[in-house]
Amino acid sequence: MKEGIVCFIFCFGTVTEPSPSIIADSFCEVYERQIITKTDAQSVKLLPPDVQKRVQGNEVLYLCRCKGWKDKVCQKLP
Questions:
Q1: Do the domain assignments include residue 36?
Q2: Distance of CA 40 to the CA centre of its chain
């Protein structure tokens, strides 16, 4: 019985938090851009200010981290 316990501990190990690089990569993989056309940009302007900031923030984050956008706003991101 001890052999089964040793194998279980050895095979499955421990659970750890994902590293920040994994989190950033998964964001790049799953994010779907919302502002693609000028019409999209106009539509975002009609949203409540808080929603507008979130959508624009996600777009900027995606462009900076995932597409390598070189803009001064990217330097302010965490």
A1: yes
A2: 21
Only one residue has tokens 């501990």, namely 9
Query: Shortest CA distance to 36 belongs to which of 15, 14, 62?
Result: 62
Q: C-alpha angle with apex 38: 37 to 43, nearest 5 degrees?
A: 100
The secondary structure of 29-45 as a DSSP string is HH---S--SHHHHHHHH
60 belongs to a structural domain: yes
Q: pLDDT tens-digit profile of 16-64?
A: 555 555 455 688 889 999 999 999 999 999 999 999 999 999 999 999 9
Provide the 8-state DSSP code for 46: T
What distances in angstroms separate CA 65 from CA 14, 60, 71, 72, one per listed residue? 30, 8, 11, 13
Domain assignment present for residue 14? The answer is no
